[in-house]
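Researcher: For the record, we're logging two predictions in this thread. I'll number them. Prediction 1 follows.
Model: Prediction 1, sequence and structure:
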Amino acid sequence: MPRGTTGGASGTTGGAYTTAGGEFQSPALEQLVRHLQVLPGLGRKSATRIALHLLAGGDHAARLTAAIDNALRQVTRCRRCGAITEADPCAICTSETRDPGLLCVVASPVDILPFEKAGFYRGRYFVLGRLLSPLDGVRAEDLPFDRFLERLDTDQVREVILALDTSVEGETTALYLQRLLAGRELCLTRLATGIPVGGALAYTDEATLQRAFLHRQGVDRA
């Protein structure tokens, strides 16, 4: 019998993917897979494996649901730097052992994690939230540059470290910050060798990140 034709009482074969239940004959399972599939790095096969594991028995699903619910209630963003935290302001912004004169600018809260894991940086951070991207409609007014400038004055920052991805968007944002800080009496540096072109900062190993940080270079703001 040709694919897609009716196979008696069992219903369609090739047309199963067009039904609400997909190939599972279960709309609820299909919905679960589709929600998992939108997570970063998960394709349909991986999402299916996770969904079936959660439904296999035990309390995996209940514990995961409880953990997600707790995180949604407890986790927030630091109002000063934008880092992921439960206490607001965060422990980094309130720590007396951190140097307020050093301010590391990153695009995303996840970019703070490799610095903190490596443990060599003792300054503070400022999270932009995203990078400038005219093609995607992300303009300068969409980023918190006003709060950034206020932070410079409040903390009397003497060095701004640009720790942005070496992508087109990262380079565009770095250039904008260079122009924004022109005329200010502070040191402006960028991460140096070690970060590959097109590489994402969040996935850089600790040794590479530290080498790039230690050999950062001044930026011409002319």
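Researcher: Logged. Prediction 2.
Model: Prediction 2, sequence and structure:
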Amino acid sequence: MTGRTRKNLLVLVPLLCVIAGMGVLVSYSVTLYRLFCEATGYGGTTQRVVADTAVPSARMVTVSFDAQVADGLPWAFKPLQQHVTLHLGEEKLVFFYAKNLSNKPIVAHATFNVTPTKAGPYFNKVQCFCFSDERLAPGEEAKMPVDFYVDPALAKDGNAADLANITLSYTFFPAAEPSDIQELSRFDPGTPPDANRGQALFAERCAACHAPGRNMAGPMLGGVFGREAGTARDYPYSPALKQSKLVWGIDNLDKWLADPQALVPGAKMPIRVLDANTRRDVIAYLKELSARDQRAAR
């Protein structure tokens, strides 16, 4: 290799690397921008969280709802309540309605934001149909939950502390390249319990504190069906739960997940699962886990 060729390569190789890097950035620019918005709340992008761990404050805020469909999507879509008023830090469950007006199945995805945009970093969603691509069969309709809260930290932000009204807006678009497709029929109260979906929900909503076979921040949940509350081995339960004499079955687990403090005042469990369909499927998974443990013990 001549000295001139070597010099040319020293210029060409870095240049090709720069061009390749720019190509990668361009190809992932939409994804990177979305991640940036989700992390910072830029442009009114809301935040996604596993649970509401905030302490509610006395400060109130009103959240209004807006729903649109893009041109070319034959869906009806609307909020089932115009607005709600809640405390900062208070978890709230609201519902939207969608119906496929066409004669073929359609997969769509909802984009979202809040206004004023400065509310974005403080608007936290625990559950939302906007997390995945959603399919509706011909003529099918669905009532879809959104579980959210507004972080009390909003009141300490000099730029946002004066906010009293926030609007949460959605627009459904046809999904160009569908992925993680979910059936909106899962929100139908008449849908049978789905242990497989419950396992995915458990991993998403519960696994930070609970495991089937070992104690973590919460007690082990393997074999929970038919077990008396407060009796899992080596776990430091609250006196309230130890003395409750509850036996875990479908009804008690549903009440517990919906509002632990209402069922057992003084219990340590801080998290509620407001959506009944989510509770239904998580409980189906826990029931299946218990059945597996019983089969393994034989």
